[in-house]
């Protein structure tokens, strides 16, 4: 697939050329975990919060990458905590985990609409487990705006692994230097740059508009 570049009539002549803008999802388009959601998860686990979060994040990468299912992930978390979660509790933990990651930034969704309306190809690279990917696909039609949706659980690679970015480049059929990657984590930006992709460390939608030379 060769993306169609943004129509020049919609872009400042001084702006850099981006054949594709590659977006991270959580922390850019979708919100990070909600405070209420995090409290609910820790309460459901029934373990001290510091130990719970150490296990949650320490085992998350393989879950995001699709190496394990949600049920297997939560059993691993239980093992790390020296406890046991039965099937009913695992089901509640999976549900609570999905809910904790469900908030979306409407301002950023509007920006995606604006970009695609102007002819700018966009793509998505997200560290996300299968259950959460399916949850988003069922609820958010804006995912169809992306020419490529690279969910870590389905491509077998998770940021900041260089292979995750290379997978996107292969799927898009575009040279690395023609891609702008937008992420809120500096380690992910640095990893993208090692394969030749240009990066923007996301802070606010307004700042991203400046980088993309889009008027508010």
TrEMBL record:
<dbReference type="Pfam" id="PF00702">
    <property type="entry name" value="Hydrolase"/>
</dbReference>
<dbReference type="InterPro" id="IPR023214">
    <property type="entry name" value="HAD_sf"/>
</dbReference>
<protein>
    <submittedName>
        <fullName>HAD family phosphatase</fullName>
    </submittedName>
</protein>
<dbReference type="InterPro" id="IPR036412">
    <property type="entry name" value="HAD-like_sf"/>
</dbReference>
<dbReference type="InterPro" id="IPR006439">
    <property type="entry name" value="HAD-SF_hydro_IA"/>
</dbReference>
């Amino acid at each position: 697939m060769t993306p169609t570049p943004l129509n020049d009539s919609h872009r400042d002549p001084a702006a850099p050329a981006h054949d594709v803008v590659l977006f991270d999802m959580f922390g850019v388009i979708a919100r990070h975990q909600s405070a209420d959601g995090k409290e609910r998860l820790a309460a459901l686990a029934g373990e001290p919060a510091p130990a719970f979060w150490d296990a949650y994040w320490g085992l998350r990468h393989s879950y995001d990458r699709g190496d394990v299912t949600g049920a297997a992930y939560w059993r691993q978390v239980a093992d790390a905590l020296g406890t046991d979660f039965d099937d009913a509790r695992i089901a509640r933990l999976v549900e609570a985990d999905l809910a904790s990651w469900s908030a979306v930034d409407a301002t950023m969704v509007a920006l995606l609409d604006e970009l695609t309306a102007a002819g700018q190809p966009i793509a998505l690279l997200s560290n996300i487990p299968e259950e959460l990917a399916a949850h988003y696909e069922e609820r958010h039609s804006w995912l169809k705006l992306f020419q490529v949706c690279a969910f870590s659980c389905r491509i077998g690679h998770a940021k900041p692994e260089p292979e995750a970015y290379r997978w996107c480049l292969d799927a898009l059929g575009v040279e690395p230097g023609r891609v702008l990657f937008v992420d809120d984590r500096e380690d992910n930006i640095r990893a993208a740059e090692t394969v030749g992709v240009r990066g923007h460390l996301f802070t606010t939608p307004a700042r991203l508009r400046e980088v993309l030379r889009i008027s508010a």
